[in-house]
Design goal:
Helix 2 packs parallel to helix 10, helix 6 packs antiparallel against helix 8 and helix 8 runs antiparallel to helix 9. It contains eleven helices and three strands, in the order αβααβαααβααααα. The termini are far apart. It is an all-alpha fold. The protein has a three-stranded mixed beta sheet. This is Olfactory receptor.
Length: 312
């Protein structure tokens, strides 16, 4: 029996990404939609990183985190979008076993890192609003670097665990993954192995990733709201809330889609694909827009860059 499982596992040299179950004519429309959104992801996030790195006035903890957020959004959308767009024109829609492993590993790495980074950004806003006089002392360069490094470390450990457990399964039921990228839930549907260990590991990872980060975000904003309501001036309240509304918008979109995808039982594959679009492409596209359109410092830095280019 063990030899049979080993041979079945070794035969899975490549997979087929089924993608969206729509008519062939709609593939062109979906390709153009993916292309447009991915182009906006590239333009927005590269632009945001360039603005933050070139403007000395944005050399603060908030923009340090925001620059890393743009970097993460850029890369994990790049792990998914190019292959998905190629498959719209491909008849085989295949992805190699190694390519599937790499895609799942990198995607899990960046999405988990983003979850912890958003929690760090909530803590940063908490210190900025609730303890403004101690902000520069508490949010030191060393602490900011440690928070970002810790986010990547947690992402890497989680990704190694999830990827290694997922690809120890035997995929003898089918080679067709009912998704537009390699994810562990569609992969477990085509496995003929016992899924007990994978389900335990995935539940454990969801528990230590989603719950702690949501708790940090909720507690931080409870203190922020309590502090803001004590501000007497309307202008002061408006300014304080404006610095947090962008972050809250990003958190709501990302966590809403992730909870739907990984916490709610996997009964609706097509809806899962739509939810996946929210955090693989829509959120990376919206993040630079949300933070730039609602942020005076970023708009001012962008204005200076444009004026300099026009002058030159």
């Amino acid at each position: 029996m063990g030899d049979r499982e080993t041979s079945n596992h070794s035969e899975a040299t490549d997979f087929i990404l089924v993608g969206f179950r729509v008519r062939l004519e709609l593939h062109i429309l979906l390709f153009l939609l993916f292309l447009l959104v991915y182009a906006m992801v590239l333009l927005g996030n590269v632009g945001m990183m360039a603005i933050i790195m070139t403007d000395p006035h944005l050399n603060t903890p908030m923009y340090f985190f925001l620059g890393n957020l743009s970097f993460i959004d850029l890369f994990y959308s790049s792990v998914i979008a190019p292959k998905a767009m190629i498959n719209f024109w491909s008849e085989s829609k295949s992805i190699s076993f190694a390519g599937c492993v790499t895609q799942l590993f990198l995607f899990a790495l960046f999405i988990v890192t983003e979850a912890f980074l958003l929690a760090a950004m909530a803590y940063d806003r908490f210190i900025a609003i609730c303890n403004p006089l101690l902000y520069s002392v508490q949010m030191s360069t060393r602490l900011c670097s440690q928070l970002v490094a810790g986010s990547y470390f947690c992402g890497c450990i989680s990704s190694v665990l999830l990827t290694s457990v997922t690809f120890t399964l035997s995929f003898c039921a089918s080679r067709a993954i009912d998704h537009f990228y390699c994810d562990y839930r569609p992969l477990q549907r085509i496995s003929c192995s016992d899924l007990y260990i994978l389900k335990i590991v995935s539940f454990f990872l969801c528990s230590i990733i989603i719950l702690p980060t949501i708790i940090v975000i909720i507690v931080s904003y409870m203190y922020i709201v309590s502090t803001v309501l004590k501000i007497r001036s309307t202008e002061g309240r408006k300014k304080a809330f404006s610095t947090c509304s962008s972050h809250l918008g990003v958190v709501s979109v990302l966590y809403g889609a992730v909870i739907f995808m990984y916490v709610i039982p996997d009964r609706f594959p097509e809806l899962s694909k739509v939810a996946s679009l929210c955090y693989t492409l829509v959120t990376p596209m919206l993040n630079p827009l949300i933070y730039s359109l609602r942020n005076k410092d970023v708009k001012e830095a962008l204005r200076k860059i444009l004026e300099k280019k026009i002058f030159l």
